[in-house]
Amino acid sequence: MPISDVSSDITVEVGTSSFPLHKFPLVSRSGRIRKLLLDAKDSKISRINLVAVPGGPEAFELAARFCYGINTEITISNVAVLCCAARFLEMTEDFAEKNLEARVEAYLREIVLPNIANSIAVLHRCETLLPFAEEINLVSRLINAIASNACKEQLTSGLLKLDHNFPTKLVQSMEPETPADWWGKSLAVLSLDFFQRVLSAVKSKGLKQDMISKILINYAHNSLQGLVARDSQMVKGSLLDLEFQKKQRIIVEAIVNLLPTQSRKCPVPMAFLSSLLKTAISASASTSCRSDLERRIGLQLDQAILEDILIPANSHGNTHSTIYDIDTIVRIFSIFLNLDEDDEEDNHLRDESEMIYDFDSPGSPKQSSILKVSKLLDNYLAEVALDSNLMPTKFIALAELLPDHARIVSDGLYRAVDIFLKVHPNIKDSERYRLCKTIDCQKLSQEACSHAAQNERLPVQMAVQVLYFEQIRLRNAMNGGHNQFFFGAMNGQYPQRSGSGAGSGAISPRDNYASVRRENRELKLEVARMRMRLTDLEKDHVSMKQELVKTHPANKLFKSFARKLSKLNNLFRINSIKPIGGKANSETRFPFQKRRRHSVS
């Protein structure tokens, strides 16, 4: 503050700061100060205290300069402070022309409110001026201006596309999705409360859902990543860590509440939903928040990749917990599989163009989606199978999720099951059998069949089944025929496939003769090995029966009966022997002589 030649006659205290000033310039511009001096009992008062000046000493100093006629430049950074100070000090036109309040109001109307980026910057400055900025409706005016200008910009862009007669998709491809100076990025500086209010305003004004999604993605990236960067060195379970989780939980729950209505035409990006769900689980967000995210992911699960569903489990320090959250994934896949029932309740989720399809046909949108989801689940199973803490019951529940028609090829499922059996060698036989039962041997490729036939981790029943189907397939391949018994072709749904799993015609014996002969030899060896194993089993069975007979109590009766039979046999043998040294009895020698004598000859 410039020192005047005239000594000061009043000292103004603002917070911890004191300003030696003069009464006349202050009284000529400020209604509040005039009223304080008039209401004072002592007419020669030399000190006044201004309590709760919005903006503090800095704001009062700017207003005092204006009272002294010093040129005070109004800018985007100080307009909010000057506006609040002018209203607090009552620097209106009632006390002087072109007073501070009028000057600030003109700047707001001409520079701030018509521009989205300027309005956001001033709104951000208002966060330090609460609650006074709310009381004078400055915050509400800025939020309404942002919402109105955003929708006007959207309307202008749409009209511009119509004027040029460009197809919508072509124009969208020509325009950058998010320019460097895009106003939506500026919203990331706002506090969560102000951001929520701005988003609610633009949604009520009709801003497009895809634009709202971009704004939310940008804000979440900056706010949540900022928390991680600031608090990465904290100790797990400490007070700072709990405070960090609380901040994360508040932000995630607020963003989920602001997500646009789920739509198949303008879905929220899957990667964003997945990141929100992972953060919600780690921050222990509310059940309703996690359920909303699970439903959104389930509705567009066919757009997900493996990284999207690899959701870490919230172990809470438990060393025996699984690496990934299996229960959440089971719920998400169940939501996808129950889409038909959900669509009957929420018809707005189904586009009219999709109604013309037969959802059970192989070329329908639903069938193509479920094939994508089946590959996704197989990849997920192979990943989680490496977790030694994963219980067999949970893995089996995952493997049994999809219906039979969801997989054209079962190679992915077989690979996942084989990995799980290798990592969990002590699994119960009943669980091993139930797990392998999920694999359709008729949908295995040649490579998978060859591997399964020699896989000692599989139950014997499955190995025999694989060999049986593989032998019939090779027989048909050698004959050049089209066997309709394999790969689900009994229902006319799946064509014969090559080892890669892709659809193809019948295998040509000329082109594949060498490989067929080699595989045939391998199969013959395996069949011989299986026969030997069966022979050993039969021998064991016979030996067990023999042991059973030896130890059985009825064996004594059998032996006595055998001795009596042997005595009778010896008796008959003695009667039939000729006596030594004597003549044989004629009837003994010719037993039929009498009958022949009386016969008619």
Q: Going across the biggest sheet, name each strand in turn.
A: 2-1-3
Helix content: 55-70%
Low-confidence stretches: 164-176, 228-232, 344-363, 482-512, 571-601
Number of helices: 28
Distance between the termini: 169 Å
What oligomeric arrangement do these chains adopt?
single chain
Structural features:
28 helices; Potassium Channel Kv1.1, Chain A; 601 residues; mainly alpha
Overview of this protein structure:
The model is unreliable at 164-176, 228-232, 344-363, 482-512 and 571-601 (pLDDT under 50). Among the domains are: 1-112, Potassium Channel Kv1.1, Chain A; 365-478. The longest helix has 39 residues, at 513-551. The protein is mostly helical and 601 residues long. Helix 8 (138-163) crosses helix 11, helix 14 (270-282) runs antiparallel to helix 15 (287-299) and helix 24 packs antiparallel against helix 25 (513-551). 59% of the residues lie in helices and 2% in strands. The protein has helices at 23-29, 31-39, 56-67, 79-88, 100-112, 116-126, 132-135, 138-163, 168-174, 183-186, 192-205, 209-230, 239-258, 270-282, 287-299, 306-309, 326-337, 339-345, 365-384, 392-399, 411-423, 429-436, 446-453, 460-479, 513-551, 555-575, 586-589, 593-597; strands at 10-14, 17-21, 47-50. Strands 2-1-3 form a 3-stranded mixed sheet, with helices on one face. The chain has 28 helices and 3 strands.
